[in-house]
């Protein structure tokens, strides 16, 4: 008997407490707490190596945690991971489609792997094709598809069994901006339907647009969590000042701002002076702009993202 | 350990049929895209051996151990065909699927466990071996091998033997650090076993220690069983041989699961 756990007062699709995962000397996940309420989209935001992908693998029991508690859809992991996996859809970071098969054949295989009843298979494949806008390409071999279509198929494949929870690992990594927006629309539609989503990303904009709640990860643990707008206000204030100029000027502006007690970050061509709301003249001259999630990230972790 | 006891208590749904079916469906659908090349290599290779030895050697020796040489080789090469269509595809296919195509990552994210994955893959390869294994025998029939009812048992023998070698291949792939490591296994394990299996010459010409060792060679047991099936059963001896092959299969099955679990679940 599987028997779901009685999670007291919980509508949590995912609940992690104190999760630790080590690979030899490397601690990939270090005491992570994570809550994903049902019907929401939670974004795991962090640079490469923050432990996002490891967290994703832990959720499907493809990695086994060394410490901590993990629950997915009320099932305790890793021992009850199989029934949990049956109700999850996973979009991996690295494309693992069967490239010599057609679009439809790929979906057919996963309709079987996810145990869709025979009489429902046809309809499930059709609706996945429609969702991913691949109806016209159903008979194309995967190796003939563009990168964007392959990624859409990867998402369709994860949705073929109408999962309650979808895990998206860097869903738009390596795609050009236009294709990325196309995928955002797809993910947004899914969210609008009430599917619970956990999405890892290192694109600030992606997290800001799609996630109800963002969890900022650094070195394997959460450094902050909350709705993107609230995180920004709470940690970075409302505005930042962007100072442009020659490298020498930038260095000087940086020195001055720091001396005045502001935090700064370099963005390549400029210096961002953070948390300058109600500026009292101490802040350097520059262009004012709204604070964003990237500022929060840098403030909290001292790391640049990307 | 507390976790261990929990795991045992909730060990629900091991080796579930839908999971195994799902993996098999994937293989069958994929097979539709590469069956030509697979069939070509699995039939042409043993046929070449059969023709080369049958005619090359057969011109020197007409009978061996009481059999026409072509009959002797035609039945013996069945085991070779089984080996070629099980151990090799298992080794390379498994490696490609987890390392390069990452197929197993996708499958294990679905409600399929490593045990089911390995079992389904081995069953699939064994089924192919059961079919391709007959090719040399059928070719030999064109060169004078007389049909017999016992031949109907050959696919079954090929299946049991193929299951063991498929799991052997999966296990090798699970333990191997790189695909280059396969050459050690091919040169040091498979080639000797393949040559000392009584396929091309009877093993009673070998030194006694080698004859004793040959009994531990599953390919030798397969060769002997096939000959018994075609030329006449030998009773208990054949049953013991079948038992040995079943044992080999079960042992390799567990080893393959262990190796892949280690590789796939980190």
If you average the pLDDT of chain A, what whole number results? 88
Assembly annotation: heterodimer
Q: CATH topology of the largest domain in chain A, what is it called?
A: Rossmann fold
**What is the CATH architecture term of the largest domain in chain A?**
3-Layer(aba) Sandwich
Helix content of chain B: over 70%
Indicate the structural class of chain A: alpha/beta
Summary?
The complex is a heterodimer of chains A (306) and B (266). With 306 residues, chain A is an alpha/beta fold.
Descriptive account of the structure:
The complex is a heterodimer of chains A (306) and B (266). Chain A is an alpha/beta fold and 306 residues long. Chain A folds into 2 domains: 12-226, P-loop containing nucleotide triphosphate hydrolases (Rossmann fold); 238-290. Chain A contains 10 helices and 14 strands. Chain A has helices at residues 52-59, 81-86, 103-113, 118-131, 147-159, 177-192, 204-210, 228-236, 247-259, 293-301, and strands at 12-23, 26-37, 41-45, 67-72, 75-77, 88-91, 165-169, 196-201, 213-218, 221-226, 239-244, 263-266, 270-274, 287-290. In chain A, the strands form 3 sheets. Chain A has a 6-stranded mixed β-sheet with strand order 6-7-8-3-9-10, with helices on both faces. A 4-stranded antiparallel β-sheet of chain A has the order 2-1-4-5. A 4-stranded antiparallel β-sheet of chain A has the order 12-13-11-14, with helices on both faces. In chain A, strand 1 and strand 2 form a beta hairpin. In chain A, helix 3 packs parallel to helix 5 (147-159) and helix 8 packs across helix 10. Chain A is globular. The relative contact order of chain A is 0.14. The model of chain A is unreliable at 1-9 (pLDDT under 50). A two-stranded antiparallel sheet of chain B has the order 1-2. Chain B is built from 11 helices and 2 strands. The radius of gyration of chain B is 19 Å and the shape is globular. Chain B has one domain. In chain B, strand 1 and strand 2 form a beta hairpin. Chain B is 76% helix and 2% strand. Chain B has helices at residues 2-9, 17-57, 69-100, 103-109, 114-132, 135-142, 154-175, 182-195, 208-214, 218-231, 236-264, and strands at residues 63-64, 67-68. Chain B is an all-alpha fold. Classes of the chains: A alpha/beta (306), B mainly alpha (266).
């Amino acid at each position: 008997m599987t028997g779901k756990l009685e999670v007291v007062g919980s509508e949590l699709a995912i609940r992690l407490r104190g999760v630790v995962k080590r690979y030899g000397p490397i601690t990939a996940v270090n005491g992570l707490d994570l809550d994903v309420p049902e019907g929401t989209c939670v974004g795991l935001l962090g640079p490469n190596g923050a432990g996002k992908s490891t967290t994703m693998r832990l959720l499907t029991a493809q990695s086994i945690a060394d410490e901590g508690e993990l629950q997915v859809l009320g099932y305790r992991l890793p021992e009850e991971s199989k029934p949990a996996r049956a109700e999850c859809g996973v979009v991996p970071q690295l494309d693992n489609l069967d490239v010599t098969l057609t679009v439809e054949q790929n979906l057919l295989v996963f309709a079987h792997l996810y145990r869709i009843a025979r009489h429902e298979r046809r309809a499930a494949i059709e609706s996945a094709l429609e969702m991913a806008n691949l109806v016209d390409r159903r008979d194309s071999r995967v190796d003939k598809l563009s990168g964007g279509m392959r990624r859409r198929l990867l998402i369709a494949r994860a949705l073929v069994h109408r999962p309650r929870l979808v895990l998206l690992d860097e869903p738009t990594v390596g795609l050009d901006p236009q294709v990325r927006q196309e995928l955002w629309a797809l993910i947004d539609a899914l969210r609008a339907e009430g599917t619970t989503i956990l999405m890892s990303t290192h694109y600030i904009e992606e997290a800001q647009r799609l996630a109800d709640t963002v969890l900022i990860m650094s070195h394997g643990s959460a450094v902050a969590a909350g709705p993107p707008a609230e995180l920004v206000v709470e940690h970075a204030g409302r505005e930042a000042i962007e100072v442009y100029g020659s490298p020498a000027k930038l260095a000087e502006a940086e020195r001055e701002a720091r001396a005045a007690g502001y935090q700064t970050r370099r963005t390549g061509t400029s210096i961002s002076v953070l948390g300058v709301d109600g500026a009292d003249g101490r802040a350097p001259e520059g262009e004012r702009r709204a604070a964003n999630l990237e500022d929060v990230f840098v403030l909290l972790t001292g790391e640049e993202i990307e | 350990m507390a976790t261990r006891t929990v795991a045992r208590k909730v060990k629900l749904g091991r080796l579930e049929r839908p999971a195994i079916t799902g993996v098999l469906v994937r293989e069958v659908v994929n097979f539709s895209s590469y069956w030509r090349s697979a069939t070509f290599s699995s039939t042409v290779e043993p046929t070449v051996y059969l023709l080369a030895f049958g005619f090359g050697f057969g011109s020197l020796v007409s009978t061996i151990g009481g059999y026409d040489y072509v009959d002797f080789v035609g039945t013996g090469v069945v085991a070779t065909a089984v080996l070629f269509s099980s151990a090799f595809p298992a080794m390379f296919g498994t490696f490609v699927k987890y390392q390069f195509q990452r197929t197993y990552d996708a499958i294990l994210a679905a409600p399929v466990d490593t045990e089911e994955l390995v079992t389904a893959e081995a069953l699939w390869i064994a089924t192919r071996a059961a079919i391709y294994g007959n090719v040399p025998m059928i070719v030999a029939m064109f060169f004078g091998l007389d049909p017999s009812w016992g031949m109907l048992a050959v696919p079954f023998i090929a299946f049991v033997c193929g299951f063991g070698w498929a799991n052997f291949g999966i296990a090798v792939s699970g333990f191997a650090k790189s695909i280059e490591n396969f050459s050690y296994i091919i040169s040091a394990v498979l080639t000797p076993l393949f040559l000392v299996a009584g396929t091309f010459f009877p093993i009673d010409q070998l030194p006694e220690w080698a004859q004793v060792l040959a009994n531990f060679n599953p390919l030798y047991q397969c060769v002997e069983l096939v000959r018994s099936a075609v030329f006449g059963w030998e009773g208990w001896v054949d049953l013991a041989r079948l038992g040995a092959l079943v044992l080999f299969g079960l042992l390799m099955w567990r080893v393959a699961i262990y190796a892949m679990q280690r590789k796939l679940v980190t």
